Amino acid sequence: MTTHAGPYPLAPDASAENPEISADEQQFNDLIEADSRIEPRDWMPEDYRKSLVRQISQHAHSEIIGMQPESNWITRAPSLKRKAILMAKVQDEAGHGLYLYSAAQTLGATRDGMTEALIAGKARYSSIFNYPTPTWADMGSVGWLVDGAAICNQVPLCRASYGPYGRAMVRICKEESFHQRQGFEILLELMQGTEAQRHMAQDSVNRWYWPALMMFGPPDDDSPNSAQSMAWKIKRFSNDELRQRFVGMLVPQAAVLGITLPDPDLKWNDETQKYDLGEIDWTEFHEVLSGRGASNAQRLQRRRDAHAEGAWVREAAAAYARKQSERSEMVAS
Ligand code: FAQ
């Protein structure tokens, strides 16, 4: 894939292929067609920009809200090593949020605007973070299933047509891969432990399996954004394709763990060369999206409180930046 950082203005004959559309639009279409990249200074259709801001900001919010279910366990992790690993992971999620907010800012969205929308409850974030984490095994399930689903969904996004998004995803995926392995390892250790530990691990997977499948979004025939996103090469695979790929990845890993995936209808289909899955409870998904999941209210309230408690940090950082710029102006004059 080539990376485009094409200069303006466009070549004069760029609209020659289709007189109905502008030279700018022709260049945009050509870049998409050539699997090249759209960069912030390139012309882009307004709907492409809006859809990217929509997806990237939701993704950023997910990373930030996604810190909460795990930070819940930092003080209670069963050993110093586990605590250090968990702290590093939660910090990584904050970093992912920052790369993604920055990518959305290159499209004209403001950080304040995105934050305001989140704390006002007007912005979406992933359904998965509205479930509670009552046991230590949930740290294993979040890593194995939630980060596993995130990787499956996000590796193709490394090739997203919008340059800053794709590049942010490359680093994020490397870190998610470590996260997924640490979750797998927590579950493996529990499954090799006592009867009570094995029970805790299985119970946790029972609770997280179906919500993890919902992370990929509604079924393809009920996914209003997919067709256009795929035409623009933001998304490369449909929601159902990625969900299917994820289950195919989980089955052998569950066998190594000795864990049962809680779907009695899950079975290999020789004809389709895929797993047949049981019915996903889409009513639950829509309830969570409407704000009625087990932890929606708590997650948003915690985010609001953290934003208010962090006001002095933002003020101090702004004052420091102001002083630094005054100082450099004085040196320059
Ligand atoms: N939750 O037409 P589609 C992570 C919404 S990061 C909430 O299919 P699209 C790391 C969707 O926005 C997890 N809303 O939409 C981590 C749309 O609403 P809108 C986040 C959902 O965009 C691990 C409507 O339903 N990852 O886990 C969900 O084509 C551990 C119709 O849906 C990303 O955001 C959902 N599950 O496909 C952090 C990846 N699904 O906007 C901490 C990037 C759908 O029209 C700890 N995003 N909706 O109002 C994507 O790949 C896509 O946006 C999809 C949805 C696949 C999520």
From TrEMBL:
Keywords: Oxidoreductase. It holds the Pfam family PaaA_PaaC. GO terms for molecular function: phenylacetyl-CoA 1,2-epoxidase activity. GO terms for biological process: phenylacetate catabolic process. Its EC number is 1.14.13.149. SUPFAM superfamilies: Ferritin-like. InterPro entries: Aromatic_CoA_ox/epox, Ferritin-like, Ferritin-like_SF, PaaA, PaaA_PaaC. It is an enzyme of class 1 (oxidoreductase). One of its GO terms (cellular component) is cytosol. This is 1,2-phenylacetyl-CoA epoxidase subunit A. It comes from Cryobacterium psychrophilum. The gene is paaA.
